[in-house]
Specification:
CATH topology: 434 Repressor (Amino-terminal Domain)
Order of helices and strands: HEEHHHHHH
Structural class: mainly alpha
Largest sheet: 2 strands, antiparallel
Oligomer: single chain
Shape: elongated
Helix content: 55-70%
Number of domains: 1
CATH architecture: Orthogonal Bundle
CATH class: Mainly Alpha
Strand order of the largest sheet: 1-2
CATH superfamily: lambda repressor-like DNA-binding domains
């Protein structure tokens, strides 16, 4: 049941992140700082962490991934390093090519936490039929939980 609830949570988050993808794409050149509850400026961008994590897990060097996504071999390592350090943000087409090479869904790069990132990976490996079944299971679970709270 816990797994079902977690996968339901992920399915809902995936939809949210899909909608946010366009927003993030528009903000890639000017990633807007936001104010934390402590009134301190935060520019937390999940892309660098997710990119480095996926690349390392896949076992590629920065240079190799850069070349695979179409960067000039002379600058591939440097460009990838800038993305992983958060100095620059890749455009959405570059992120798509990276996602394809690293075998991760595009929305993976926008996951703010490890649990959501892991769920994105798991759901992306499911068939469309399995994903639909999961959505229905999660909806049923939410209805049951909401009815129990009345």
């Amino acid at each position: 049941m816990h797994y079902a609830l977690c996968t339901m949570h992920y399915a809902l988050c995936t939809m949210h992140y899909a909608l946010c993808t366009m927003h993030y794409a528009l903000c890639t050149m000017h990633y807007a700082p936001r104010i934390d509850e402590d009134e301190q400026v935060s520019t937390k961008n999940p892309i660098p962490e997710r990119l480095k994590e996926a690349r390392s897990r896949f076992g590629l060097s920065q240079r190799t991934l850069g070349i695979l996504v179409g960067f000039d071999p002379a600058s591939a390592s440097s460009r990838m390093n800038h993305y992983e350090k958060g100095r620059h943000v890749p455009d959405i087409d570059t992120l798509r090519r990276m996602a394809d090479e690293l075998n991760v869904p595009l929305n993976y790069f926008f996951c703010d936490d490890q649990i959501t990132a892991e769920l994105a990976l798991l759901i992306s490996k499911m068939t469309e039929s399995e994903q639909s079944s999961l959505i229905e299971l999660l909806k049923e679970s939410l209805i049951m939980n909401n009815n129990g709270k009345s």
